[in-house]
Amino acid sequence: MIICPQCGKESTSEQYCDFCGFAFSDEDRRENASNVVATPFEVGAQTKNSPASYEGIAREVPISFGGAIKQCFFHWGTRGRASRAEFWYWALFVFLTVVVPLVGGALLLILDAEIGGGDLENDGFIAMAAAGVFGIVCIGPTFSVTVRRFHDVGLPGYPPYLFLISYLLLVVMTSENSIDKVVGFIPFLLLFVAVVALCPGDEDRNKYGPPPVKRKTNAKDKAKNEEASQ
């Protein structure tokens, strides 16, 4: 038995995939023998709400909003790849659950300062505190999905964070107005991450693993695989 790197299904033949016809190379056979990855979801049973690809297994269907949230909470690792849909669904979730309550709480504080009374002030503090706590919870999943989105494009995921940490340390140690400079730098970092996150991922397997969603194999691809194996 061998797991096909093209469709993620388990094939009884070690020459060609029983399902997509992909021709296995000697490297595929060796890799399968030494790195069989267990996954809590059978590939054929995946739905749009199932968590996305775990290491070594490609999804059969594109991920949904709910599936992306499950994936980001359950898979905090940085191995593997994340699709554009998974990354941007998660970004939308964080925006709705963290950014919107923070902005809403701030507006309530401003409104309370204008009209007085104190009731809106309490609501504003509660909203901002809840959003801040949940934002801390989301740091881990956000880091994970960002690294895996870089992997999908074929780039290492750690440099942006290493650069940010180095910049923060440099600014804090050498500048009197460190807070202003840090706050001013963050939008540029977010813009860089957003640009990379918008790039399409590699269609085939790269050094970080198979694509998050398996690519449909047509007759041309099948013939190409057979030709390469000869």
Structural class category? mainly alpha
Portion in beta strands: under 5%
Radius of gyration: 23 Å
Could you say how many structural domains there are in total?
1
Roughly how much helix do the residues carry, as a percent range? 55-70%
Query: Number of DSSP strands?
Result: 2
Low-confidence runs (pLDDT<50, min 5 residues)? 35-56
Describe the structure.
The chain has eight helices and two strands. It is an all-alpha fold and 230 residues long. The chain has one domain. α3 runs antiparallel to α4, α3 packs antiparallel against α5 and α6 runs antiparallel to α7. The chain is elongated and about 75 Å long. About 10% of the residues have low confidence.
Outline:
This protein has 230 residues and is mainly alpha-helical.
How are the secondary structure elements laid out?
Layout: E1 2-3, E2 10-11, H1 26-34, H2 65-74, H3 84-115, H4 119-137, H5 139-153, H6 159-174, H7 178-198, H8 219-229
Antiparallel strand pairs: 1-2
Helix pairs in contact: 2-3, 3-4, 3-5, 6-7
For the structure shown, list the relevant keywords.
two-stranded antiparallel sheet
